[in-house]
């Protein structure tokens, strides 16, 4: 079966989900309401990783809707200021060196903690419509050294569309590299195992360095199929790095986080970021770990890792920039601007008063 046909077999309704698990009537009614607000979309492959007898299964938690989404209304749908950094439909330019292209509103799996819940599977209003306009913008902004193609997930697009993006971008002389942000190697590896996309990427990598930034969150996601997809990317000259999100009930203990990063390095994936879960509406109260606890988890995990495995940074992707969580000392948290919308803030080290349940910069108090 082709990957396109397999993707059409995704579980998208509560009735289809009931083929896998018994759902009590009261929960079923709530799930139907949740799916109306934020769609469910899960590959049969990713569903196969779930242990339905484990009420705390991490894959289930990440992929299957929860009734809690109905009451978890605290937060915002645009926590990183994406609207204010949108230069044209489908193109954002927040950091001077990086242009972000939103290529699609679709993913192979709709993760329940997604920070783009406002658009994924719901609306194409923010998805690029005219690639030529975006290319012209990038050509005119020579400070842009790299382009990140994201969405949604660009690897659910046809190869011909991906090639069209690459044909345009590799011709821009001031671009050093092109990145694809994709969770497909984790949630739908047959896209890379049963198709010639890795070879296509490899051909373009001879003209311009290409990176794939993928998104493993838990050791259970490392399967023979998934690591095989990574190997095909690596064999074709693609550099693969990983961005994880610290998620309550998924990887919020040091042993799981350490094992995750050991596996990344084992399979040739560069640890890049561990993100603090953003305070997104219908996400924050379910998945966000307090900063005080998160810092302890990250540091204890790093204590179990070698130098290569702990190269990642623990980061908040705030509307003002990427803020590294550097340290906690008593009632104070020490932070540093790793990236900043205002370049004068780059590298700035500062401290804030840390409250017990603070999960975001905006929750912290100004230090005296």
Structure description:
Keywords: 4Fe-4S, Iron, Iron-sulfur, Isomerase, Metal-binding, Pyridoxal phosphate, S-adenosyl-L-methionine. InterPro entries: Aldolase_TIM, Lys_aminomutase/Glu_NH3_mut, rSAM, rSAM_sf. Its EC number is 5.4.3.2. The chain has two domains: 68 residues, no CATH class; 239 residues, TIM Barrel (Alpha-Beta Barrel), CATH 3.20.20.70. Strands 1-2-3-4-5-6-7-8-9-10-11-12-13 form a 13-stranded mixed β-sheet. Helix 7 runs parallel beside helix 10 and helix 12 packs across helix 14. With 368 residues, the protein is an alpha/beta fold. A hairpin with a 2-residue loop joins strand 10 and strand 11.
Offer a quick outline of the entry.
The chain is an alpha/beta fold and 368 residues long. Helices cover 30% and strands 20% of the residues. The protein is built from 14 helices and 13 strands.
CATH secondary-structure class of the largest domain? Alpha Beta
Return residue spans where pLDDT drops below 50 for at least 5 consecutive residues.
none
Helical content stands at 25-40%
Radius of gyration over C-alpha positions, nearest whole angstrom? 20 Å
For the largest sheet, list the strands in their spatial order.
1-2-3-4-5-6-7-8-9-10-11-12-13
The CA-CA distance between the termini, in Å, is: 63 Å
The SSE string, one letter per element, is HHHHHEEEHEHEHHHEHEHEHHEEEEE
Q: What is the CATH superfamily of the largest domain?
A: Aldolase class I
Strand residue content: 15-25%
Mean pLDDT: 97
Structural class: alpha/beta
| Coarse shape | globular
User: Any idea how many domains?
Assistant: 2
Q: What's the main sheet like? A: 13 strands, mixed
Query: Architecture of the largest domain, according to CATH?
Result: Alpha-Beta Barrel
Number of strands: 13
CATH topology of the largest domain: TIM Barrel
Number of helices: 14
Enzyme class: isomerase
GO molecular function, one term: 4 iron, 4 sulfur cluster binding
Protein name: Lysine 2,3-aminomutase YodO family protein
Pfam families: Radical_SAM (PF04055)
